[in-house]
Write a structure and sequence with these properties.
- The chain has helices at 21-30, 46-56, 68-79, 92-100, 108-118, 122-125, 142-153, 177-188, 201-209, 224-234, 248-252, 267-278, and strands at 2-5, 12-13, 16-17, 34-39, 65-67, 85-89, 104-107, 131-134, 157-160, 166-169, 172-175, 193-194, 217-221, 237-241, 262-264.
- By secondary structure, the chain is an alpha/beta fold.
- It is elongated and about 65 Å long.
- It starts with a strand and ends in a 6-residue tail after the last helix.
């Protein structure tokens, strides 16, 4: 089977591993499954994920990590030839992924400094970018928001890595990239093009990375509104892990049409669900 595996809330919460999940994934790979990680988190570069997952004992390969940052960079490169220069409101991992795709990157921090020192418009301070790419920025400041909103109002394409309003950490739920995106949307009146889950592109790109078809995959995630919804959009089966964002009570309130194929509360439940799905043919 092709397993598309979310990270935050499934494999780990912040720096703390979810007990047993890495071992389950390693065992499934030994049995012949292909594991590709698909995360809406846009803060980190692929190499950062490799080191982290290796330390946890999870099966990992740099070519099998598709973050919303990576997918956004590939989308801009392959589908938006008009986008050459991008203003980035996000973390260093997003900046690196965009540069790897051959884009000219201007950081919001650099442009914000120019505004403060020169008193110029954000669009000019950013070098008149073709697009504004927004992810989670833990160094967010008001001037960085000013730069991004100025550029969007001036006509730069507004691209969101994802619209997750929250993300799970070992200390609880924290604001996600979607919270920043919503702020800019309210400030500019412009609806962004969104790349991450629940949009299908991230899962489709992850399947392509290993020569597979997203319809044949099993999506393993912790959020019914992003992970499970994305699986439905591409026609894939799904397993909801009750180890992150979505609670059992929230799942119970969902209509049957929006529920996952299976539910697991821990690593043992995940192993059992995967064994059951492996024995069942994929319905097309």
């Amino acid at each position: 089977m092709l397993l598309l595996v979310d990270l935050d809330g499934v494999v780990y919460r912040g720096s703390a591993p979810v007990p047993g999940v890495a071992e389950v994934l390693a065992e499934r790979e030994r049995m012949g499954d292909v594991v590709v990680y698909v995360t809406n988190n846009s803060m980190h570069y692929r190499a950062d994920y490799v080191r982290r997952l290796e330390a946890m004992g999870a099966p990992v390969d740099p070519g099998r990590i598709v973050s919303s940052a990576r997918a956004t960079a590939l989308f801009a490169r392959d589908h938006r030839p008009d986008v050459r220069r991008v203003l980035v409101l996000g973390a260093s991992g997003l900046e690196r992924e965009l540069r790897d795709a051959g884009l000219d990157v201007v950081t919001s921090g650099y442009a914000a400094t120019r505004i403060a020192q020169e008193g110029i418009d954000g669009f000019e301070a950013a070098g008149r970018p073709d697009a504004v790419v927004v992810g989670l920025d833990t160094q967010l400041t008001y001037l960085r928001l000013v730069v991004a909103s100025d550029c969007i109002r001036a006509g730069a394409t507004f691209i969101a890595t994802n619209r997750d309003p929250i993300y799970p950490t070992e200390r609880g739920l924290r604001p996600g990239a979607g919270s920043v995106v919503a702020l800019l949307e309210a400030a500019t009146g412009v609806t962004p093009l969104s790349i991450g889950k629940p949009e299908p592109y991230l899962l489709e790109e992850a399947a392509r990375a290993v020569g597979g078809d997203a319809r044949d995959a099993v999506m393993i995630g912790d959020n019914v509104l992003t992970d499970i919804a994305a699986a439905r959009r591409v026609g894939a089966r799904s397993i909801l892990m009750l180890t992150g964002v979505t609670s059992e009570a929230q799942l119970a309130a969902m209509p049957e049409s929006e529920r996952p194929t299976a539910v697991a509360s821990d690593a043992d439940g995940l192993a059992a669900a995967l064994e059951e799905l492996a024995a069942a043919p994929v319905a097309r």
